[in-house]
């Protein structure tokens, strides 16, 4: 799939650390041709001083695919944006939502909700340097901020600097007292606030994120905003992506079957293992492929018991599939 002329963010798969690596994104693309895929957050330091290929390589079938950047220094962020464009990414996304200790110590991620001027300066410099879109993924506020003031301030400043697309996780981030995992679930969702944001900034593209678990919920949100972003459900139950093109992009084709997805992924996994990848790094993404199906517990158990063994190959996945059918 070639780089698209225009990205339709009607449905996006959220960037998730330790989840949305290039193998997971390849799997997702086997099921949906239209969903916009996001990398795990990659810091500017990793790109500028680390192994670029390790952090940036992706399969050409992944388009449209966006690189999510973690950082706050405009010069470093701009250089990384230029590298992302050269590498072939369709979008660069600024992380203004991650609440982990790591980003707090580096003064980026959700901390930047408190510094809309810094985010705007990053947007301005980055967008001036590249032709691909520079977007912002944020929370509705952090700690004791008032969400309507914090979110409107951030969006207003970044929009004036040239950002046209905002992906909003409809929760506060509590930097004091909650772990990153708790920050995904404990702060209450405020979808109406994001709807109001769209109403006040109708010229901007607003994508809503947080607690979205079904395609029916996606339809409900799309009555108020431009796009939806699904995270943990899309990872733990990946086959939900097989209905995205038909449900949200009006495709007339039939969804691909689970078994066909598995067969295509096994072919890909064989190539990756031959190139040095380990099965357990590949198999973790398909553990949820048969979520909700009869005897899927046998599928999961066989993979968990065998994929980590030295020298394991894709026969483990075939045997896991046979285990479900053997009873």
From TrEMBL:
<dbReference type="InterPro" id="IPR035587">
    <property type="entry name" value="DUS-like_FMN-bd"/>
</dbReference>
<feature type="site" description="Interacts with tRNA; defines subfamily-specific binding signature">
    <location>
        <position position="181"/>
    </location>
</feature>
<feature type="site" description="Interacts with tRNA; defines subfamily-specific binding signature">
    <location>
        <position position="300"/>
    </location>
</feature>
<feature type="site" description="Interacts with tRNA; defines subfamily-specific binding signature">
    <location>
        <position position="297"/>
    </location>
</feature>
<dbReference type="InterPro" id="IPR001269">
    <property type="entry name" value="DUS_fam"/>
</dbReference>
<feature type="domain" description="DUS-like FMN-binding">
    <location>
        <begin position="13"/>
        <end position="313"/>
    </location>
</feature>
<dbReference type="GO" id="GO:0102266">
    <property type="term" value="F:tRNA-dihydrouridine20a synthase activity"/>
</dbReference>
<keyword id="KW-0694">RNA-binding</keyword>
<dbReference type="Pfam" id="PF01207">
    <property type="entry name" value="Dus"/>
</dbReference>
<keyword id="KW-0285">Flavoprotein</keyword>
<dbReference type="InterPro" id="IPR004653">
    <property type="entry name" value="DusA"/>
</dbReference>
<feature type="site" description="Interacts with tRNA">
    <location>
        <position position="184"/>
    </location>
</feature>
<dbReference type="GO" id="GO:0102264">
    <property type="term" value="F:tRNA-dihydrouridine20 synthase activity"/>
</dbReference>
<feature type="binding site">
    <location>
        <begin position="209"/>
        <end position="211"/>
    </location>
    <ligand>
        <name>FMN</name>
    </ligand>
</feature>
<dbReference type="InterPro" id="IPR018517">
    <property type="entry name" value="tRNA_hU_synthase_CS"/>
</dbReference>
<keyword id="KW-0521">NADP</keyword>
<comment type="similarity">
    <text>Belongs to the Dus family. DusA subfamily.</text>
</comment>
<feature type="binding site">
    <location>
        <begin position="231"/>
        <end position="232"/>
    </location>
    <ligand>
        <name>FMN</name>
    </ligand>
</feature>
<dbReference type="GO" id="GO:0000049">
    <property type="term" value="F:tRNA binding"/>
</dbReference>
<feature type="active site" description="Proton donor">
    <location>
        <position position="98"/>
    </location>
</feature>
<keyword id="KW-0560">Oxidoreductase</keyword>
<comment type="function">
    <text>Catalyzes the synthesis of 5,6-dihydrouridine (D), a modified base found in the D-loop of most tRNAs, via the reduction of the C5-C6 double bond in target uridines. Specifically modifies U20 and U20a in tRNAs.</text>
</comment>
<feature type="site" description="Interacts with tRNA">
    <location>
        <position position="95"/>
    </location>
</feature>
<keyword id="KW-0819">tRNA processing</keyword>
<feature type="binding site">
    <location>
        <position position="137"/>
    </location>
    <ligand>
        <name>FMN</name>
    </ligand>
</feature>
<feature type="binding site">
    <location>
        <position position="68"/>
    </location>
    <ligand>
        <name>FMN</name>
    </ligand>
</feature>
<dbReference type="GO" id="GO:0050660">
    <property type="term" value="F:flavin adenine dinucleotide binding"/>
</dbReference>
<keyword id="KW-0547">Nucleotide-binding</keyword>
<keyword id="KW-0820">tRNA-binding</keyword>
<protein>
    <recommendedName>
        <fullName>tRNA-dihydrouridine(20/20a) synthase</fullName>
        <ecNumber>1.3.1.91</ecNumber>
    </recommendedName>
</protein>
<dbReference type="GO" id="GO:0010181">
    <property type="term" value="F:FMN binding"/>
</dbReference>
<dbReference type="InterPro" id="IPR013785">
    <property type="entry name" value="Aldolase_TIM"/>
</dbReference>
<comment type="similarity">
    <text>Belongs to the dus family.</text>
</comment>
<feature type="binding site">
    <location>
        <begin position="15"/>
        <end position="17"/>
    </location>
    <ligand>
        <name>FMN</name>
    </ligand>
</feature>
<keyword id="KW-0288">FMN</keyword>
<feature type="binding site">
    <location>
        <position position="169"/>
    </location>
    <ligand>
        <name>FMN</name>
    </ligand>
</feature>
